[in-house]
User: Fold these one by one.
Assistant:
Number 1:
Amino acid sequence: MSIKKDMQKLVVAGLANLDEELAREEPVARSSGSIPSTSTMLAYDEHATAMKRENEELKAGLGKARPLALDLLDDSPDHIGEIEPERVAALQSNLEQNPQANPILVRAKADGRFEILAGRHRVQAFQNLGRASIDAVIREATDDEALRMVVYDNYLAPSLTDYEKYAGLSLIRTKRGLTYEALTAESGVKNVGKLFAFERLPAEGQEIIKATPAKFGANLFANLAPLADQYPERVVDALRLIAEGKLGQDSAVKFVKSPPSPLAEARVQAAPSSRTPREWVMAGDQRYAGYIVRGREVQIEFKDEAATQAFAAEMKALLTRFAKKSQKP
């Protein structure tokens, strides 16, 4: 019996017993097998509709903030540098009293979890506060795009050291096979050559820098790299003394080139560290101002000139208030 006659018969029967009728008929030869039952076709249709609706909802959610459970978030393997406790503390203090202003950025993983592309300090602050979820934007990104988002986003962080900047750019260069010229063009970083001079330093010296990266800059890498082959031990000694706060970066080249003097070496080794750690005041997850207290002096450095001028306008009133408090009754 043809398919047309079958369907005519079913229509006449009012579809009352479609499954029973089809079960009594011989299957019609088709490339994919017999005609499925009505219940099966309805189930397929409902499933397809549900999948289409879910897909549309997921696409509609891309680029828009939505709450995600914290226990579904994983840090990106491409993040450079450690979580900074002072940034987390500042964010935690703010988010404890105020709503989240900026969502984090994530991408979906194959296992149903999410990789953090930007905002890991906010995630840590939320975890410390005992929150269950955080607002996040889900971004479609390939591995290559995710790598660039993570590294270049972190590169702009004011607290990132030159070594950490090198490490991030080196990761991109290695994974993507870029030349220095291509990396410079893509990143917009002007001192790529100075940063990558780190690779020409002795291995022992590199480990010293990795242990205390905040004490070393790209200019030092570039200045010491040409001397590493001729004076490897002196370069390592200079880096060690800088790490200990006994030698300034601007004196490193002279130290390396000068013939070692037992008396001078003894004086340098015995000299106490003159470096005073800078305390930072945070504005959200950004550094607003840093200050150093040396004896009777306080040195303050602001993030920009506008902030400096604003503080200067208030400083006289602040000092006057403290002066009045200091007066004896």
Number 2:
Amino acid sequence: MKARVRTLLAHPVVRNLLFERVLVTASAALALAALVTGRVRPSEIPGLLDARLLALFFVLTVAVELGKHSDLFDRLVAAVVRRARHARTLAFALIGVTGVSAALLTNDVALLLVVPFTGLFRKVAEVDLAPLVVLEIAAANLLGALTPIGNPQNLFLFWRGGFTPAGFLRAQAPFVAASAILLAACVPLLVPRRVFEPPETSAFGVDPSLAAAFGILLALAILAMSVGLIRSETASDLRTLTATGASGTTRRNLTAVTAGGLGFAGAVLGTVAAYVAAIGYAFDNKLDGLSELTSVPTTNLLLIVIGMPLAAAAVGWLFAGREQSALGRRPLE
């Protein structure tokens, strides 16, 4: 019997599901159990699916894969290792990046971006990734709690508690500061001392088309979250528009203009910031130098500065959707 169990566990499919896809397997098992026990009826499943949220995570997943296949992540990893030089310095940097990203983009989105990036460090440095990922998960949930959009629980507390943004930051700051100190104290305990050998940057050639596609999809995902938050903030205005007879087309147009405007502003500012960062990085880099910046990727820049805002406006118009019939009435409190 034991031999059969070992043989079954050694099967590639079973091993992949149990040891490499634990979360997917557990989620599928729980979903099946809910159906079998009658807690969820098959007719209720469509109403439980959030198509917009699933689409957002799909776009982020595709963006991350494009970033990896473009070798952009590899180039960034090599640059980080060259600058950090020590494993503990790298851990502190990843905690900071994850915390800031979670506070601005929500904890789930931050982990979707940072954890795949962290996995690439094994290509250029001998480092145990498990403690780094654990610290990143803790940072996303603890440090990301600083802002209302850091995690779903914060959004609930923000709306139900009647906080202003400044008031919420003041309430969360002591907790987040204490969490940051504890995370910093955990670094020497979890991450051993290790000095990195400077990697060869020339080994990674970035594909500009795939890198531009990564940037566009990432920006569109961030825009989708920003527009969603703006629409929730202006829900009372939308109720007023609906009550005065504004059509669904009007609401769609407002969303499209908002998304397009934010997309254009983000594209311009992001392009300028990227060139400033590239110049600062290449200025004292003996391997790259400023010569690489003389070739301007005109097509990719046009796609980012013009194509992305147009795509954001189109997606915003399509996904604005029909408002619920109760939107025209302010709920009683």
Number 3:
Amino acid sequence: MNHEGFFLSPDGILIPVDSKHIAMVIDCPEKFGMTRDQVEEFYRRHGEPLGLEGAAREEILRILLRNGWTRIRNNRGLWSVETQSMTEILLFRLRAFAAMARKGGKPFYGKASGSDEVQLAILGTGLKQHLTFSELTIKTGDRCSPLNDQTTGEMMRLTVSAIDDYIPVKDLIRDKKMTSRG
């Protein structure tokens, strides 16, 4: 399957989306810091059937973005990136994503993306721009070299994980604290 959508977790893990972003949240809400009951409550409050791409979906996705998630999708060759705010580390991660997309292979399943174009939406500032991944440096005011981490000089790489295998960092820390106490 060629993934046309991804979530980028707050801790930098790239998670391919097999169908719709909201379907993944509904199927695995705990991976996103929610419960199934909370997700269903959003839909009840908006009077919508579970999974409808309407007001409840928008509210859930806004919460995820505020919590540090980034939503990426490709629609007819145009990459769309939605995030709450642009940070230096997110900029590095998006550049790493762009390099992966251009190269193809997993998780793009051999299909290299011919497009470098991106519609960037930074919801916290209301910024919406159409640019290329390489322009991201200039347009966002970043002073770092395009694909290299300034501190190490190495290319940043993203870890790719299926949603079932993804463990949020906060859960790893909590589990480590529990095992170190006992």
Number 4:
Amino acid sequence: MMGHVGTAVWILVFAVTSLLAVSVTTKPPIPAQYQAEAPEVAANWSAERAALGKRLFQERRLSRDGAVACVDCHRPDLAFSDGRVRSLGVGGRVHRRNAPALANIALSGALGWDGRTTVLEEYVLGPIANPIAMDLPVDEAVLRLDADPAYRAAFRAAYGGGPTRERLALALAAYHRTLFSVGAPFDRFVAGDETALDESARRGMALFGGKAECSACHSGVRFTDDAFHSLGVGEDPGRGAITGRDDEIGVFKTPSLRDVARTAPYMHDGSVATLLDVIELYDRGGNPHRNRDPKLKPLGLTAREKDDLVAFMEALSGTLIEGAGPVASASWARR
């Protein structure tokens, strides 16, 4: 009898010890300037989980050939875009779309150019299994991680057990939820520093909310309405391929303009090279398309007005941070 009691006590002690070994969780940190737009999320975040997610973000073994990691298409120095017209996946395969920037992704509603999901934990697994991107079944990715004693230990410390599909998604999402851009010249100007914007950027700011009507879609603290519109760019069906709706063919999510000067080239297909080219597209009222947004119309901007709008958008580039500290862009190596 005493033997059974002793065994039960040891099982209880082991269970409590294991529970205490798992990292204490809370809600992810949100910079003060974004808290008004922050969605409600579960309190399942910890710095330890985010650190594991960062390691996984840089892990090339999550691709079939061991040559591609998330960081290759989402570079820290480019607001987590990649500077290519369209990204490269395993074996040099070319994506059909431009890599979206990940800075401030924790604040997004619908995710990706076509808004295919609103759940970050679903979104982060997509590239791993995508045959053009990393081309590795997620279950096989989990097996590779489980074969590594260091990863097994890291997952146990963060989640109380070894690698699983769910924990892989949670860890990657935990890291994504630390990525923000803060303290742009525009933010300093709004906070009272009148020297933060030069005269050109100030004129551009007035145009942005006035004659150019940019704020009709690029609104809020992130400069996006999180909605879907068509500018008549390219032949990609966009959101229409997700919803099956004819009136959403060629429609794409409004990207945030935070750090937009770092994320060229532009549009879902990377077909617009510079910010000035983007403004030229808007100035002519977009391109012909049956679903072109009715708000688009020729603007009649002058050359100086176009330059001023560029100056204002350049003033939306801030300091990229991971949680409480700046992004260490030297911590990755591009292929």
